[in-house]
Design brief:
- By secondary structure, the chain is of the alpha/beta class.
- Helix content is 22%, strand content 31%.
- Strands 4-3-2-5-6-7 form a six-stranded mixed sheet. It has a three-stranded antiparallel sheet with strand order 1-9-8, with helices on one face.
- Helix 1 packs across helix 2.
- The two termini are 17 Å apart.
- It binds inosinic acid.
């Protein structure tokens, strides 16, 4: 854990408190609704997803959506590569889309467009982190955990060079190259 210098930005306690708060709101929103599907956007949101769905007190099905953002020129178009598609159709279902971080917003915009094209009954979006200063497009976000600056962060599912996903808190990398 000492390859790069990390400084804690959001503690484990702050994350867990925020998740209980969002979980309560989503529970109220979905009270009495049937056919609820929570989608985990892999890889980054696996930790936020698994904590958040446990804070949602209603019957829901779990789906996993693997995406990888293209880099360079293509990234600016917001195109993402689907590495693992949903296992079941979400047509007619109440979908909760759960992301780790919204940076330029291009990935989330793509995901929203992709899910809407599958005709869900409703769509709610949640992200743990949002970088408002980095947004390149308007994104409809229903639940945002924390707004942060444009710094690159790791931990709690987020990686840098494949590392740090297992940290229970969010940190900033000090000595990135
Ligand atoms: P977008 O720029 O909003 O399309 O974000 C694309 C993806 O880049 C996110 O889903 C993350 O996987 C990754 N990403 C953006 N900012 C960070 C960061 O600060 N740390 C780790 N990954 C990030």
């Amino acid at each position: 854990m000492d390859k790069f210098n990390l400084s804690t930005l959001i503690t484990e306690k702050q994350i867990q408190e925020k998740i209980l708060e969002i979980g309560k709101k989503i529970t109220q929103q979905y009270q009495g609704k049937e056919d609820v599907v929570a989608i985990c956007v892999l890889k980054g949101s696996f930790m936020f997803y698994s904590d958040l769905i446990r804070a949602i007190d209603c019957d829901l099905a779990c789906e996993f959506f693997g995406v990888a953002s293209y880099h360079g020129e293509i990234k600016s178009s917001g195109e993402v590569k689907i590495t693992l598609d949903l296992n079941h159709p979400v047509e007619g279902k109440h979908v909760i889309l759960i992301e780790d971080i919204v940076d330029t917003g291009l990935t989330m915009s793509y995901l929203i467009k992709n899910i809407k094209a599958r005709h869900p009954k409703s769509l709610t979006t949640a992200t743990l982190l949002l970088k408002p200063g980095a947004l390149k497009t308007k994104v409809d976000l229903d639940h945002v955990g924390f707004e942060i600056g444009n710094e690159f962060v790791v931990g709690y599912g987020l990686d840098y060079q494949g590392l740090y996903r297992n940290l229970p808190f969010i940190a900033q990398v000090q000595n990135m190259n």
